[in-house]
Specification:
mainly beta; globular
Length: 164
């Protein structure tokens, strides 16, 4: 997918158990067609401007043509799972800086903690404009392997979004 030279999302995700990192990845996301559309529509036309963003996890296939309404096998709200909220403000996007000659935003670090049972299996992370399936899917990444967040484990994540 890396054909988009004006926008780059770099995710950092790790699973932590008892204070120890089980796995960690830093990976570029894939921007889906809905994401392309909403970026252009919101920025240049002032239409469909999202009030906030959400980061979630799921299990299954996502590709460039995927839509938010078709996110496969997202965990339900049991066991501590919920999409993480990113409001459009300087608290949730605290860093705006030059990086190698291009501007970049960095999100706050977010955490989901499994509580009362496990969350998963999971093999994708995604960013959307809604906490439900009514909205737009922006981007996604594949996790390094299929993972399950065991009761008491944390999954922490942040995203750098760079204009290029």
């Amino acid at each position: 997918m890396g054909k988009h030279q004006f926008f780059e999302g770099i995710w950092n995700i790790k699973q932590i158990r008892d204070g120890e990192v089980l796995w960690e990845i830093t990976k570029r996301n894939a921007l889906v067609n809905e994401g392309e559309k909403i970026i252009l529509d919101a920025f240049f036309r002032g239409s469909n401007v999202p009030a906030s963003f959400y980061v979630g996890f799921c299990y299954g296939e996502i590709n460039e043509e995927s839509q938010l309404v078709h996110i496969p096998n997202e965990p339900n709200s049991a066991n501590g799972y919920a999409r993480a909220l990113l409001s459009r403000n300087e608290v949730d996007f605290p860093v705006l800086e030059l990086n190698e000659g291009d501007y970049q935003l960095t999100t706050k670090e977010m955490t989901i903690t499994a509580s009362g049972g496990s969350i998963g299996p999971l093999n994708k992370a995604f960013m959307a404009t809604s906490a439900t399936d009514v909205g737009f899917l922006l981007s996604f990444i594949s996790l390094p392997t299929t993972v399950t967040i065991q009761d008491g484990d944390n999954i922490t994540f942040s995203i750098k979004i760079k204009a290029m």
